[in-house]
Amino acid sequence: MKRIAVLTSGGDAPGMNAAIRAVVRTAIYSGMEVMGIRRGYRGLMKDEVEPMSLGSVADIIQRGGTILYTARSKDFQTPEGQARAAEVLRSHGIEGLIIIGGDGSFRGAQALTRLGIATIGIPGTIDNDIPGCDRTIGFDTAINTAIDAIDKIRDTATSHDRTYVVEVMGRNAGDIALHVGLAGGAESILIPELPVSMDDVMAKLERGAARGKEHSIIVVAEGAARGMEVGKYLSEHTQFEVRVTVLGHIQRGGAPSADDRILASKLGSYAVKLLQQGESGKMAATLNGVLTAVDFDTVFTTPREPDFSLYKLAEMISI
Ligand code: ATP
């Protein structure tokens, strides 16, 4: 394989730049040419393709976001859009494509694989919602950002004897909420994978108050309930002074953590090696700490659940 390309797609995640850097540097090291595609599949269909060099990825390992920009594209989901994308790749002599993004982006990659383009996906999304891998790039940074915010909120919660509802990201996956709930010492954690019981949340608050505890933190994944609604309900049904904070997109940004940079560097380099070995239609991942290539079909069909042991542990020690 002489020429490959890399793009980022879907939501941006800290560490994507470190992955781009590893792809570009490994490819050049291995004697290949690398092209960068701007704005994901949308940019690909519009021929936003440029050559990458060792220098074009200098000084980006520490930067959040993605220097290649990212996008979501409905047009690419049509057969015409996919045929156009494959045509653009062929016109540049690009034989292999590395896609850094979430499972939606991998479905797009699968479509290109069927059109004869070799593809390898790298899991990059803060949600950690991709089956078949230990972690997605961006998750570690996102939970550390959220923890930092929760620690600050705790200071004011304690000082004012308040109950704080903190909404974190996670439309379909409770991983962020579970990790920051446990690490942030939350009294209750609401995640989309489990039924929400406001009675349980209130019972916990009452138990705490009965032993003199006047402040609490409740972490809510956006897919489980809206923080504002939880806050309103608690204000109306309890005597506690409740405030709500929605962390929102700050969880997406910032310098990637060391773990994310290392994971991104490993996966970026591994993805290039997989293409060199003739692999295609696979996700480059670490599973139980070992570099592994997982078929996209396996990624799409494997059921996924968060680590419920974290939930049980948090329940027990936040009694
Ligand atoms: P995140 O987890 O951050 O949302 P994602 O990769 O899952 O990332 P999506 O918006 O689902 O984000 O997908 C990104 C892009 O991939 C879409 O805008 C679309 O162009 C393409 N895509 C998604 N699903 C498909 C599909 N079923 N077939 C072809 N292309 C798809």
Overview of this protein structure:
The chain contains eleven helices and eleven strands. The chain is α/β, with parallel strands linked by helices. The chain has two domains: 3-138 and 256-301, 3-Layer(aba) Sandwich (Rossmann fold), CATH 3.40.50.450; 140-252, Phosphofructokinase domain (Rossmann fold), CATH 3.40.50.460. Helix 7 links the parallel strand 7 (188-190) and strand 8 (216-221). Helix 1 (16-29) packs parallel to helix 9 (258-276). The chain is elongated. The model has no long low-confidence stretch (mean pLDDT 96). It binds adenosine-5'-triphosphate.
Radius of gyration from the CA trace?
Answer: 22 Å
CATH topology of the largest domain: Rossmann fold
Count of β-strands:
11
H/E order of the elements? EHEHEHEHEHEHEHEHEHEEHH
**Count of helix runs:** 11
Report the β-strand fraction as a percent range. 15-25%
Structural class: alpha/beta
In order across it, which strands form the biggest sheet? 3-2-1-4-5-10-11
The amount of helix comes to 40-55%
- Overall pLDDT level: 96
Per CATH, the architecture of the largest domain is: 3-Layer(aba) Sandwich
End-to-end distance: 58 Å
Residue ranges: pLDDT <50 for 5 or more in a row?
Answer: none
Name the hetero compounds present: adenosine-5'-triphosphate
CATH class designation of the largest domain: Alpha Beta
Shape: elongated
Let me know the largest β-sheet. 7 strands, mixed
Q: Number of domains in the coordinates? A: 2
